[in-house]
Amino acid sequence: MKRPKSHQIDTEAQRIFNSSCPTNWVIRNQHPDYGIDYDIEVFQDEKPLGIWFKVQLKGKETIRETEDFIKIPFETNKIQYYLSSVPLPVFLFVVLTKKKEVYWLFIQKYVNEILKNENPEWIEQKYVTINIPKENVFSDYCEIETEAKKGMKYLYILLYGVPHWSIPMIIDGTIENIEKLEEKKKTQLKELNEMQLHLANKYFEKGTLERSQQGFKEVFDSTKDQEDYILEHLSSIAGILSFYSVFNDKENRKIFELSEYGLKLAQEIQNIKFIHYFYGLFVEASLYKISKRIWGVNIFMKINATQGGDLLYPLSIYQTEDYKNLLEFSKEYVLNLYGSFKNRQYWVSLYLLIRLIRINLIHYTFLITEKNKDELIPLLEYISVLIENSLQFANELDDINGQCEILILKARFFYFQNQEIYRGIIESVKDLASKHGFIYYITLADNLFNEFSQMPSFPEGPDDFPEPPPFEELPEEEIEQIYKMLIEMAGIDLESEDEIARIVKIGLKDRNPGQILRNCTHIEIAPGSYGIPGEILGLPTAGPKFLFCKYGDGFFGLSLDTLYNELERRYCRTCKYKDPMPEDWKWSLTWQKERHKMQSEEFKLFIKNFNF
Question: What is the pTM of this model?
Fold first, then answer.
């Protein structure tokens, strides 16, 4: 009977393997041989070294191979057996009988560190392909002994468990090396932060904004003041900033503060990408703040002009300075954008371009209150060129987020011109976002469509805006906001303790004296000399004032509260003429003007004598 070819190859493989083994290896055949052919114990000078390993031997005449690897099909159930039930290293030895070459592989380590990563579904297959590096030629038996010695520790750890990152340290005997352990810790934390940032970006794309924002915030908190993770910290700042809008005053202040903070850090490490990015956001926040202030001053000047124009001069001074700053910041923004292109920071360049489109759209919405649409055609043409060039740039960079952002702005651009084409553009945003699974932009597009559908036609010039009401008819909150804007423009910090800030704060409080006047119909008040703060702000109450009652006395001072407290202490408590205002009475500028016309002769005389 003819002996099977496979038996002949196995016998030849055993002969070649045994002849290649050193004499200090004691080789014992294993029976039965389920996945294990030999047990090997290593000796030196007839003394055991405590090194054991097992061998699975495979003989092949021909084999699949690449330039760097030989490829062996292997039974998955045997691998599972090695991992779960064999506490010693199993070495796969492959003998190429025709070439008389022997290759080896520590199989449990290979599966744990390579196969699981390259083929996560390996356990569901009947066979897997094992790639043995051609450099693993069985020529140095000391190399096998060293690997087997380490392998015994490796298998103990693998079976009984320690953190996976510490395995190489334990095997190499370096677990007590603090410097290496610290370095490994830094690497692990760096990878964790990078993973958290990646997850935050993915949650953003999927529209899970709360989890996205939380992810960026966690990285921000964990990396703050940590020099080893400054790049991750800068990335977290950029992520957090994406949740803030320049259109919201509080959020715009956050953009201003965070971008300034990020810029300082980026400059410390000379990171060009983040320097350009954060400086761009810093300038954008400043531009919006100035643009809104110019718009507010324009509206206020119109209102004030109807009242005799007391504030026109100081307002015109602030407006001139604001226009100067607007031009300066615009120039800075464009130079920074150009610098990002020059330094090949193309991702930053794209997002600065997107923000430049937004800045110019904001300018258009402010300017349309002063000029007709036809007068703004050069600006519209400029915005159109910006949009098309930026969209082409985003396509070349294959940046889907950027494409969606630009298309959203393009829809706004056409809506501002009352062109129905914006509807089709919004649909194209949804199609693009759906194709790539970007739920955030689908939701954003739907919200934008609903917003535009519920709004009337966009104004095409000053005539489309209603005439501003007289100053005294403005809601009290709006008047207070106007004065706060003027105070900010004048560079007065209400949080400070200096004298000017104190006078202005009193002036703001006394601007509405309703709480004092409602105590009695006989109380009269009038401003004294303005003083410098009052002149600058057009705020008559930011200076000395008169308070008078014909049944009591007259007082002069800075604070109405102080003056009334003195009147009340001396006269009001026992005054038989005390006559409170009706419960439904409410102070207003209109009421104050009418009351001034009916000023009592006694009060006029008091003011005249005081001034004299």
Answer: 0.56
